[in-house]
Amino acid sequence: MDAVIFDLDGVLIDSEQVWDEVRQSFAAAHGGVWTATATRDMQGMSTPEWGAHLVSLGVRLTPAEASAGVIAEMEKAYAEHLPVIPGAVDAVRAVSERFSVAIASSAPAVLIRVFLDVTGLPVPVAVSSESCAAGKPSPDVYLAAASQLGVEAASCYAVEDSTNGLKAALAAGMTVLAVPNPHFPPAGDVLAQVRVLGSIGELPDALA
């Protein structure tokens, strides 16, 4: 195995709830009606995809305007507090001593950069699905990260927390480890296909 590719939201930062709160508030402020499935539907979507989904919920903006507005609110939230998951920074540092590392995330590039700037982690490749043809559960962002690292997807571990993220990494042909999101637990049938960890802090030993 040559590399470990990390998801960001839910794996390295406890941000899924922040995204959910910001999107719900933004949608309500712009005429949207939140549905029972909206949260899970948007997990893993690329920026253009979830911008369009907000419009489908009744938000009276263009997809680009909706996504730009939400991202601006996320930047404000992160400026106040970046919710790094305990043990995540140490885990990435430990893994990077033995493997090439990358981030493959549905988060927009500007928010990935905020995370890397704040933590100072040695991550040479960070790919946002907003630069790919499709977001998760499509494997595009994982395949792009492996390509930029110069390794085969089959020689990569992927670390994920959500149903769509796990599906994306599996579709890319990677060996997948799950750190299930406690707020939005992934589907059991998908978890059955991967190795499940209790926390991100267990990762270095799991790869030993």
Structure notes:
InterPro entries: HAD-like_sf, HAD-SF_hydro_IA, HAD_sf, PGP-like_dom2. It comes from Lentzea cavernae. It holds the Pfam family Hydrolase. This is Haloacid dehalogenase. The protein has helices at 16-29, 38-42, 47-56, 63-80, 88-96, 109-119, 140-149, 163-171, 188-191, 203-206; strands at residues 3-6, 100-105, 125-128, 156-160, 175-178, 195-196. By secondary structure, it is of the alpha/beta class. It is globular. The model has no long low-confidence stretch (mean pLDDT 95).
Secondary-structure topology with pairs:
Layout (H helix, E strand, L loop, with lengths): L2 E4 L9 H14 L8 H5 L4 H10 L6 H18 L7 H9 L3 E6 L3 H11 L5 E4 L11 H10 L6 E5 L2 H9 L3 E4 L9 H4 L3 E2 L6 H4 L2
Parallel strand pairs: 1-2, 1-4, 2-3, 4-5, 5-6
CATH-wise, what's the superfamily of the largest domain?
A: HAD superfamily/HAD-like
Shape: globular
Please write the CATH class name of the largest domain.
Answer: Alpha Beta
Find the CATH topology of the largest domain. Answer: Rossmann fold
Radius of gyration: 16 Å
Helical residue percent?
40-55%
Give the SSE string: EHHHHHEHEHEHEHEH
Count of helix runs: 10
Structural class: alpha/beta
Mean pLDDT across residues:
95
